[in-house]
Design goal:
Layout: E1 2-4, E2 7-10, H1 14-25, E3 30-33, H2 41-45, E4 52-55, E5 63-64, H3 72-77, H4 80-89, E6 94-96, E7 101-104, H5 109-121, E8 125-127, E9 132-138, E10 140-145, E11 148-152, E12 154-157, H6 172-179, E13 184-190, E14 194-195, E15 210-217, E16 220-228, E17 232-234, H7 236-242, E18 251-254, H8 263-270, H9 276-283, H10 286-296, H11 307-318, E19 320-322, E20 326-327, E21 335-340, E22 358-360, E23 368-369, H12 374-389
Parallel strand pairs: 1-11, 2-3, 2-12, 3-8, 12-22
Antiparallel strand pairs: 4-7, 5-23, 6-7, 9-10, 10-11, 13-21, 14-17, 14-20, 15-16, 15-18, 16-17, 18-19
Helix pairs in contact: 1-5, 1-12, 9-10
This protein binds dihydroflavine-adenine dinucleotide.
Dihydroflavine-adenine dinucleotide is lined by residues 10-16, 33-36, 41-42, 45-47, 51-52, 132, 158-160, 163-164, 168, 170, 172, 334-335, 362-364, 373-376, 379.
Length: 390
């Protein structure tokens, strides 16, 4: 005997709860099946416990996907402002931290509670601790767990990506997609620290030092802070470019983002007694300045150094090339680039074109946002698109 519903949603994360709430409030009988013992675990730890729940400037340009147009429709129909209206309707206090990133003043739990409340308004059944053993499709979809079989004519894959397996994240969404013949774009860790090896291990000595830089990989440029770590490079600028980086690629760093061109030459004229080290110490934390100075290896007063050497040194500082030996992998990645191919899905409804009744939303899909609230905005928008269409 199976319990029947109008729609079954696999995964009680950001996208799954949003989708369930909308579909439930439209009058559908909705079941959410969650493997973990409680819903919204990634929301709870997000944004250092305060949940960077959206980015007020979120638009298609802030996302990576094999099809950069795919996210447009859902993002336009459910915007950051729409989610903020929901947050405000619950009286949840929020603030903008930087670059349009909106956080709870209190705790991320407020966002999970809000989503569960929205689900309750739609009489959604949320079952946690459900281990999915099989999903069959013969007319309806039948999902079997250790507790029984549930069936519905509509099934939504909202089980996220494999980032942070310690929290129970898996590639389940991809296995299910493949079972139904859907293509999967190769998943890679994204928003992830990069590691340094070879000669560059020297930089590990300044673990803990951070500086404002412009980081670049594969033509994507981010002016934010970079942080040196005991394994290599991190900080927002590096996490951002990591999503564009592929093994073997360089990461280029401008260590002088706020300085006029020909800074070293100009200073040679105005202050010939200064040295590259003393100048770098003005611009950057001392330990970083010293290590860069050692690498540049032009000791002595600027006044005694040839213009050509100073031009070369400045070029080096503005286009410093790191060759990361790798990334810290899914264990440390905030999100996953790649996933269920958008070529299989309707951008309006998130329904599979190959298997009617099957939907995929959130991080499971090949749409990945920048750091800064963009990934939740995609979860809300894609969840809403499917929730409207189920
Ligand atoms: P999500 O991962 O939220 O939910 C998937 C759900 O499916 C989980 O509850 C999981 O347990 C469940 N599941 C998995 N396999 C299953 C199975 N076989 N059966 C049943 N259930 C299963 N983004 C952002 O915009 N702002 C931020 O502040 C942060 N901060 C942040 C911090 C950290 C440490 C991480 C790891 C990630 C972030 N993110 C973020 C990214 C954000 O958390 C992520 O993009 C969304 O949670 C994706 O939402 P989904 O609903 O798609 O997946």
């Amino acid at each position: 005997m199976s319990e029947n519903f109008d729609a079954i949603i696999l995964g009680a994360g950001a996208a799954g709860l949003m989708c369930a709430a909308r579909a439930g409030q439209r009058g559908l009988r909705v079941l959410v099946l969650e493997r973990a013992e409680k819903p919204g675990k990634k929301i709870l730890i997000s944004g250092g416990g305060r949940c960077n729940f959206t980015n007020i400037g979120a638009g298609p340009a802030n996302y990576l996907s094999a099809n950069p147009h795919f996210a447009k429709s859902a993002l336009a129909r459910y915007t950051a402002r729409d989610f903020l209206d929901l947050v405000e309707s619950y009286g949840i206090a929020w603030h903008e931290k930087t670059l349009g990133q909106l956080f709870c003043d209190g705790s991320a739990k407020q966002i999970v509670d809000m989503l569960l409340d929205e689900c309750a308004k739609g009489d959604v059944t949320v079952k946690c601790g459900e281990e999915i053993a099989s999903v069959e499709h013969a007319g309806d979809f039948a999902v079997t767990t250790q507790n029984g079989t549930y069936s519905a004519p509509k099934l939504v894959i909202a089980t996220g990506g494999p980032s942070i397996p310690k929290m129970g994240a898996t590639g389940f969404a991809y296995e299910l997609a493949r079972q139904f013949g859907l293509k999967v774009v190769e998943p890679r860790p994204a928003l992830v620290p990069l590691t340094l090896g070879g000669d560059e291990v020297l930089f590990r000595e300044i673990s803990g030092v951070s500086a404002p830089v412009v980081a670049e990989a594969n033509k994507a440029r981010f002016p934010e802070a970079a942080l040196f770590t005991h394994r290599g490079l991190s900080g927002p600028a590096i996490l951002q470019v990591s999503s564009y980086w592929r093994p073997g690629d360089p990461v280029t760093i401008d260590f002088l983002p706020g300085r006029e061109t020909d800074w070293l030459l100009e200073t040679k004229r105005s202050n010939p007694k200064s040295t590259i080290r003393s100048l770098l110490r003005e611009a950057l934390p001392d330990r970083l300045a010293d290590i860069l100075d050692e690498k540049i290896a032009l000791p002595g007063d600027l006044g005694n150094l040839p213009d050509k050497a100073l031009r070369g040194a400045e070029e080096q500082l503005r286009r410093w090339q790191f060759r990361p030996s790798g990334s810290e992998g899914f264990a440390k990645a905030e999100v996953t680039v790649g996933g269920i191919s958008t070529s299989e899905l309707s951008s309006k409804t998130m329904e599979s074109m190959r298997v009617p009744g099957l939907f995929a939303i959130g991080e499971a899909v090949d749409v990945t946002g920048w750091l800064g609230g963009y990934n939740f905005q995609w979860a809300w928008a894609s969840g809403m698109a499917a929730g409207e269409a189920l």
